[in-house]
Design a protein that fits this description.
The complex is a heterodimer of chains A (518) and B (228). Chain A is an all-alpha fold and 518 residues long. Chain A contains 21 helices and no strands. Chain A has 2 domains: 241 residues, no CATH class; 225 residues, no CATH class. The radius of gyration of chain A is 26 Å and the shape is globular. Chain B is of the alpha/beta class and 228 residues long. The longest helix of chain B is centred in the last third of the chain and has 16 residues. Chain B has a single domain, classed as Rossmann fold (3-Layer(aba) Sandwich), CATH 3.40.50.300. Chain B has 8 helices and 12 strands. Helix content of chain B is 36%, strand content 25%. In chain B, the strands form 3 sheets. A 6-stranded mixed sheet of chain B has the order 8-9-10-5-11-12, sandwiched between helices. A 4-stranded antiparallel sheet of chain B has the order 4-1-6-7, with no helix packed on it. Chain B has a two-stranded antiparallel ribbon with strand order 2-3. Classes of the chains: A mainly alpha (518), B alpha/beta (228). At the A-B interface, helix 12 and helix 15 of A face helix 2 and helix 3 of B.
């Protein structure tokens, strides 16, 4: 019956479905092109761009060695993503109409499984192409044969992962599969740590193995063998998944459809905050203890601190700092000023996004002020002040790495601190602008834009806040890249100009609060 | 009733959208301890009236004053004196039910906030979910949380939009009894409702919005009109 209904769809409905798929493929291609440029920039920065790097005794790897380690890490990420998405889902509107019907749902289930496998293959091709971009950029060589076989291998491994994730969903074993993923991830990190330690003590066998692996990556015959093996495995897993698909629970498909819908909505609005899990609060002794300590703070600050801690907004910057630390200490050539500037650029963007996520409910939902019975101005000032403090603290922690490597001479200490303060103000201003921005439907905006200039203007409007935050950090970038020369006044002027709205917002909120209370 | 005794005064207030009035101009006043229900069919403008009174929606014409001064939702006095429950609820995702109530009570300077929170949790039977986050609650429990937040703090005027929605009958009866007690303590109430029991048990009169006309009736007539 469902198949008949599908066949009966008129031409416009079919065209709509086709154009939807076309748009997503087009967006993926555009994203690939942009990511190609970004990755090239990142690799250029990591290699120092001609600037001499510090020779650290702990740096035992080359970037190319790490590219190989990235393969299992990326596969794990794709598998986790597929498990998060279901992967066999039915959109909520179809689920409401089709699932209650007393008919056999084979067509629906098989179609969902087919989509899941195709999604796995496409996602892996996307990731695979990016990986090859990194590899070729790092090695400076290019082999078309390897690229082609690599893409086939990526598609086959993606289909395999899609089928495995579907099998986990059919058996309601998603949690167990996630635990396996977590264990594999820990094992990968453990393996890296052990190999780092062995290389540090000059283990020749391991040094030779890394060298051989680096050569094997460019060997087409190896990729051909990998392709064959993966295709066989993918075919077997796909057959197994299709043979068991009738056992797939309808509710599981409905839930997966909701998650997929939510993800698409978040992608259309370019706001991934909606799909991030909200951690449970107040359940364990540690959070209860933290709460009892926080009770001494004013109510608004207490809410902000609880949101920051429980929303795990500290997690992203902490991971960035740890990654930067590990890369700088473990990989040759990364302890250079350009790479550390890149790290600070990332830190500024991440802090802006993170802090805007933390403040978004307070900034954009007047109902919360109503619930607390507080005027909005009494929420805004503590929020801005708290954010300024967090941004300054975050940047101070990020400064520890270049300072420890001796890249901030003592003569530059005060200008550096002043630069951090200006950057923190800039982050506060940019964060508030981003937190109060309205929701956007990016799909219709991009489709409705007349030309590239218009699309560029839209992108500038969306990402202008990040540019503001980055511009406010110009003095610290300058101090890092040219430690011997004083920061030109023009740079200070530009960064202060970008940071000024943050200071102004803080002052205005204070004035409003005073006026309201008096 | 002297003018100085009036808490909330609404004069010739025209409510509506894009200059299109939903009903004839509205006049009403609330003195301490007064209880006024707003009744009418769906779409007659009850919730719009509440939203306009609170300044959440612009009025076409007319004035709303609170203690003789133009109503300002941001003013400290309005916030201190008026407890509001008008929306279906926005919550802090990371805070638990008990923490929401604690923040409201402490924000309003309730000294024994711990007792106040416990009292409201017991009254609305939310003890079992006190450590849960609002997203984990049922729609009825979320409504209870909003009502508890309005009652956990001191107030001189309560503005409620269909408080009976999604509550079970037992809690409704208990809530109406509580509202009647609050009126005896000089707290005034302005409430949109579809429940004749609420009109009878805890309000003294009703403003009826019907067919674009506005009429003030006593509680009994209002309840009978709702039962019709």
């Amino acid at each position: 019956m469902i198949t008949r209904m599908r066949k009966r769809r008129d031409r416009s409905a079919r065209f709509e479905a086709f154009s939807d798929a076309y748009i997503w493929v087009l967006l993926a291609v555009i994203a690939l092109v942009y990511l190609f440029s970004v990755l090239s920039g990142v690799i250029f920065a990591l290699q120092g761009g001609g600037i001499a790097a510090l020779d650290l005794p702990s740096a035992v790897w080359n970037l190319q060695d790490l590219a190989i380690v990235l393969i299992p890490a990326l596969l794990l990420c794709v598998f986790r993503g597929l498990l998060y998405l279901g992967p066999c889902g039915l959109s909520p509107d179809k689920a409401s109409w089709w699932l209650p019907l007393p008919i056999k749902l084979s067509a629906v289930r098989q179609r969902a499984l087919g989509s899941a496998i195709a999604l796995g293959a496409l996602a892996n091709i996307f990731v695979g192409v990016l990986w090859f971009v990194c590899l070729f950029a790092l090695s400076g060589g290019f082999t078309a044969e390897v690229l082609l076989l690599g893409i086939v291998a990526a598609a086959a491994s993606g289909a395999l992962l899609g089928a495995l994730a579907a099998l986990a969903q059919i058996g309601a074993r998603q949690r167990a599969a996630l635990r396996v993923c977590q264990t594999l991830w820990s094992l990968l990190l453990l393996g890296l740590s052990i190999s780092w330690s062995l290389l540090l003590f000059g283990n020749r066998w391991l040094q030779g193995a890394y060298g051989r692996l680096g050569e094997l990556v460019f060997e087409p015959s190896l990729w051909a063998v990998a392709c064959s093996g993966l295709l066989v495995l993918a075919a077997a897993a796909t057959w197994l998944a299709f043979s068991r698909i009738e056992r797939l629970d309808a509710n599981s498909m409905r839930q997966a459809g909701q998650v997929q819908n939510q993800l698409v909505g978040s992608m259309i609005q370019m706001d991934l905050g909606g799909v991030l899990p909200v951690p449970n609060a107040g359940r364990n002794a540690r959070t209860r203890l933290a709460h009892s300590t926080l009770r001494r703070l004013p109510v608004v600050l207490q809410i902000l601190v609880l949101r920051y801690l429980r929303g795990r907004h500290w997690n992203g910057p902490l991971r960035l700092v740890l990654t930067a630390l590990a890369l700088t200490l473990g990989v040759r050539g990364i302890a250079n000023p350009l790479a550390l500037t890149g790290f600070l650029v990332l830190a500024l963007c991440l802090l802006t996004e993170n802090l805007s996520q933390m403040n978004r409910p307070l900034a954009s939902q007047p109902g919360l002020a109503q619930l607390l019975g507080l005027p909005r101005s009494r929420l805004v000032r503590p929020a801005l002040g708290f954010t300024l403090g967090l941004a300054f603290g975050g940047l101070l922690i990020c400064s520890a790495l270049p300072a420890a490597l001796g890249m901030i001479p003592s003569a530059n200490l005060w200008p550096w601190c002043a630069g951090l303060l200006v950057a923190a103000c800039g982050i506060t201003a940019a964060m508030w602008g981003r937190a109060t921005r309205g929701e956007r439907d990016w799909e219709s905006l991009i489709l409705g834009s007349a030309n590239e200039l218009h699309t560029g203007a839209l992108a500038l409007k969306e990402f202008g806040h990040f540019l503001q935050a980055l511009a406010s950090g110009l003095p610290i970038f300058f101090l890092l890249l040219a430690p011997g020369s004083p920061v030109p006044w023009g740079v200070w002027a530009l960064s202060t100009l970008c940071a000024y709205p943050g200071y102004l917002a803080l002052r205005r909120a204070g004035e409003q609060q005073t006026a309201t209370i008096s | 009733m002297s003018i100085g005794n009036v808490q909330l005064a609404v004069e010739h207030l025209e409510i509506g959208y894009a200059g299109q009035a939903l009903c004839e101009p509205i006049n009403l006043s609330l003195t301490p301890g007064a209880g006024l229900g707003i009744i009418g069919a769906n779409g007659s403008g009850k919730s719009s009236l509440i939203r306009t009174v609170l300044g959440l929606q612009p009025a076409i014409s007319g004035t709303v004053s609170f203690h003789g001064a133009a109503l300002d939702e941001g003013s400290a006095r309005f916030r201190k004196d008026v407890a509001v429950q008008v929306s279906d609820g926005v919550f802090f995702e990371e805070l638990t039910v008990a923490e929401h109530l604690e923040m409201v009570a402490r924000g309003h300077g309730v000294q024994d906030w711990n007792d106040a929170v416990t009292r409201e949790l017991e009254f609305f039977e939310l003890q079992q979910v006190a450590k849960q986050q609002p997203r984990e609650l049922s729609s009825g429990q979320r409504r209870k949380l909003l009502l508890a937040a309005a009652l956990v703090r001191p107030a001189r005027l309560l503005i409620l939009d269909e408080p009976e929605q999604r509550l079970d009958q037992r809690i409704r009866v208990r809530l109406y009894r509580r509202l009647a007690q609050l009126r005896e303590q000089s707290v005034s109430i302005l409430a949109v409702t579809h429940d004749p029991l609420m009109i009878r048990d805890c309000l003294e009169s009703a403003l009826m919005l019907h067919g674009g006309q506005v009429r003030t009736v006593d509680a009994q007539s209002g309840a009978l009109w709702l039962e019709r």
